[in-house]
Design a protein that fits this description.
Blueprint (H helix, E strand, L loop, with lengths): L6 H13 L4 H9 L16 H26 L3 E12 H7 L5 E8 L5 E5 L1 H11 L15 H22 L6 E8 L13 E11 L2 E10 H4 L8 H10 L3 H12 L5 E4 L7 H5 L17 E5 L2 E11 L2 E9 L8
Antiparallel strand pairs: 1-5, 2-3, 2-4, 3-6, 5-6, 7-8, 8-9, 9-10
Helix pairs in contact: 3-6
Length: 330
């Protein structure tokens, strides 16, 4: 990304050229020279900016879905949002993971390969404590999960993967199958150490506990889905998803929607004292004249003008005019 000069730096540069301290021709020669930039082949950027933006949008949607699911299941305050999206070598990611954490390995069938969800112990133990009837405190455990705790947390994470599947449905269909639950990252070899992965970090708060949920997606696994993360293609696909019969069904259901319609006969203003003294057979004078059209509202919006009358034995109004949007009503 090119550096942007401030106004002060621009003025100083122009002043230096005008006084002869800096030669404009020399600047042109430097610009024409070939620039050399250091490139780290171990940290190859294989995800384009557009694909990273697509992954960010997708996981923002997942965060909203997961917030709703967790709030309902844990019956407590849950807040989840995307904190960062980075691409780095798998070896660098696995070194950054704490020695004691909760790692969920799952296969995105029918795709080949495996994906990884890493849940900070503060978050995982708060979930577990809440499911077991506690207040959702982040308990410190050095001995790891018991067999019963592992079973409970596995069932919870399986439901999380169903929500993850729903978030990915706009890009591609896959059925996440949970393979294993691991606590030590050193025992886990997802892909080769130099393979580029994208790491999506979700900042998570459950009650008073907070921490990160990280999704590690190897490039080699989701490579064939990456072209679909383009904004233009994504919008095109979503438009193509609706079939003709679905559009007809949608229109049919919209036409069945109930709209409340009310007719305003007139208005009046009285004092609190007059209101308190109202009794049977009292008459309230309205400000509506008999030759002035009545106001017809659809919901709370003025929509038509009408004149009162009768239809058989029922009171009715006849529409005389339509109120255009933005038109003032006196």
């Amino acid at each position: 990304m090119a550096d942007v000069l401030s106004q002060g730096e621009i003025d100083a540069l122009l002043s230096a050229i005008s006084t002869g301290e800096m030669d404009a021709d020399e600047l042109k020669r430097e610009e024409a020279e070939r620039k050399v930039r250091t490139y780290d082949f171990k940290r190859a950027l294989r995800f384009s900016k557009d694909q990273v933006r697509g992954l960010t949008r997708l996981h923002e949607n997942f965060s909203r879905l997961l917030t709703t699911q967790m709030s309902a299941q844990l019956r407590t305050y849950v807040q989840i949002h995307v904190a960062s999206v980075d691409q780095l070598p798998y070896e660098e990611f696995i070194r950054s993971v704490p020695k004691r954490t909760i790692l969920t390995v799952f296969e995105p069938a029918p795709m080949d390969g495996r994906l990884l969800m890493e849940v900070n112990p503060n978050v995982a133990y708060a979930m577990l404590d809440r499911l077991l009837g506690g207040k959702g405190e982040a308990l410190s455990k050095s001995e790891g999960l018991t067999e019963i705790e592992t079973k409970i947390i596995t069932q919870l994470f399986q439901k999380t993967l169903y929500t993850y599947q729903e978030a990915w449905s706009s890009v591609g269909d896959f059925d996440p199958v949970m393979e294993e639950l691991e606590e030590n990252p050193q025992f886990l070899q997802l892909v080769s150490p130099n393979e580029t992965v994208v790491v999506i970090s979700l900042e998570t708060s459950i009650g008073e506990a907070s921490g990160m949920i990280n999704f590690c997606l190897p490039h080699v696994v989701i490579e064939h889905l990456l072209p679909k993360l383009s904004v233009h293609l994504w919008m095109q696909e979503k438009q193509k998803e609706r079939l003709p019969f679905e559009e007809a069904s949608l229109k049919k259901n919209v036409k069945k929607a109930v709209l409340p319609i009310s007719v305003e006969l007139g208005r009046s203003s009285i004092t609190i004292q007059e209101f308190l003294q109202l009794d049977k057979m009292d008459v309230i004078e309205l400000d509506q004249k008999t030759d002035t059209p009545l106001l017809v509202k659809v919901g709370s919006e003025p929509k038509y003008l009408a004149q009162p009358g009768k239809l058989k034995k029922n009171l009715a109004v006849q529409i005389t005019d339509e109120i255009k949007e933005g038109e003032d009503i006196d």
